[in-house]
Amino acid sequence: MEREIIQTLDGSTTIHLKEWDECYHSKHGAIQEAQHVFIKNGLSLFENQSVSILEIGFGTGLNAFITFLEAKKLNQTINYVGVEAYPVSAAEVLAMNYVAELNAGNEIQIFEKMHESNWDEKMLLNPDFELTKRKQFFDQIEDVEKFDLIYFDAFGYRVQPELWSTAIFQKMYDALKPKGKLVTYAARGVVKRSMIEVGFTVEKLAGPPGKREMFRASKG
Q1: Are 112 and 96 in contact (CB under 8 A)?
Q2: Which CATH architecture has domain 29-218?
Q3: SS3 155
């Protein structure tokens, strides 16, 4: 599938899949979307805590890198697991401008290490942030009550509806600890129904720039 690096409206970059006309992040702002959906409405709920995070769609590493930066401000210890079936290439990673756009030049080595680390091995990025990248399909996830928070950042329902099925959300529900949260940019009725069917309580929240709404789901 043909891919290209494009700039989103907030100045940050993303990968565009031409055949699907689908992007890894919002065209309205990759960084803005990550900050709003995953940090403001997810990570910030766990201030001053140890947090285990499962990311569905590690992709460019943007969500992981922003989480690394924000966790310092929120006084958190993070165990981060990113699942990705099709890792981005080194060339694509080098084309991403996240370090500059986030004014995080002093952490450029962390962003590079996130991508240079071996798959399926734990890496300690600093004393408070442990990263494991798992190369697997989402339907292969078998974790049980391991995570406090899930970043559900799969490709959109329009192009991959199977990633938003009841079966996948059952795996997400099982992977969360009691009182755990799942946040996603999605706000389709069919997605909400699948979440509710497996036991989630679903909130509809204001979406990031360019999107009216998003979902946050809670277990118990």
Answers
A1: no
A2: 3-Layer(aba) Sandwich (3.40)
A3: coil
